[in-house]
Amino acid sequence: MSATTTLNRLSNGSFALVKEVMAEGLTRRRLLDLGLVPGTKVEVIRRSPAGDPIAFNIRGAVIALRRDVAGQVLVSPWK
Amino acid sequence: MGLTYQSTGQSTTREIFNALADHCDYAIALAGNPNTGKSTVFNALTGLRQHTGNWPGKTVQRAEGSYIYKSHRFRLIDLPGTYSLLSNSADEEVARDFICFARPDATIVVVDATCLERNLNLALQVMEITGRVVICVNLIDEARRKKIRIDIDKLGKRLGVPVVATAARSGEGMPRLKELVSDVASKRVQTKLQPVRYSQEVENAIARLEPRVQAIVGNSINSRWLTLRLLDGDTRLVHTMENYLNTGETVSVMPVVQEGLV
Asked: Where are the domains of chain A?
């Protein structure tokens, strides 16, 4: 079992598996609808110049998430 | 104004949505994620005889068109592209309200063959509201190029609704799509839905609440789906119902909601 971190702390080009979505309410619904359910593999593609938002590859689509939202997704780094 | 809704109730719901104007035999909704080629499917079916219009009280645009298949006229309503029906953005509400309250004779869910998994979320959400669904696995030509193979028969069996692979750009699969839509809309083919099962705790709550919800709304809305939304705490939906159903029903469902929320 590798260490748990949050989606916003991963470096560009790295992969992680979703462990838990901690967000509540509509944000939670939104993240789940985007495919961020436990077990999903996510790739960090790039960051905007200010470091926020961050672009992820989630199930074949590039999705940008704000840092505070990405921070609510628990992941374990992959490989 | 309000008198027409209240005095005539749900029978006018379709007229509010203007879904069955111009003596059409069947109303067909077209749903799908953004960028799945939904509009291409729409144009391939209707031959680009579309005009755009507005939803009542909304600024979100919709496209409508019609086509004739085996001497029946099908009216096709292109809903906004969404990932979900539950997140309460304006687009999603339009799509949800139409499927839920206008109750089209069939709903085509267009999914992207190259990323099927993420698209099935919406398909399952639609199938929780209505069983009269045809899944259109579009962009199958692109999937082939990417060496993605999709077992259409198996997908259909697992979902319990008709599935067809299409490449709307070239017209591949469109005759079959029309045939399946006609089968579902006319009830020639009965779909065999496998309802999504939730955790035991949630299923227990549904079992307790659903009979009471059903007693109030009858068959006007899928009671299991409405029960789930109530458990979700979606009180906005209840207020939306006021516009489309007898207000009496909404008032009487509210105490059940409050109880469900405790």
From this structure: 5-77
* B164-217 pLDDT tens trace: 999 998 999 999 999 999 999 999 988 888 878 899 999 999 999 999 988 888
Q: Which homologous superfamily is B8-185 in? A: P-loop containing nucleotide triphosphate hydrolases (3.40.50.300)
Backbone φ/ψ region at B65: left (φ over 0), alpha (ψ -120 to 50), beta: beta
- The pTM for the full model equals 0.81
φ, ψ of residue B151 in degrees (nearest 5): -85, 90
Instruction: Tell me whether residues A60 and B114 touch, CB distance under 8 A.
Output: yes
- CATH numeric code, A5-77: 2.30.30.90
CB contact under 8 A, B115 and A60: yes
| ipTM exceeding cut-off 0.85 for this assembly | no
Cβ neighbours of B86 in A, within 8 Å:
29, 33
In the three-class reduction of DSSP (H, G, I as helix; E, B as strand; rest coil), residue B178 is classed as: helix
With beta carbons under 8 A apart, name residues in chain B contacting A33: 83-84, 86-87, 121
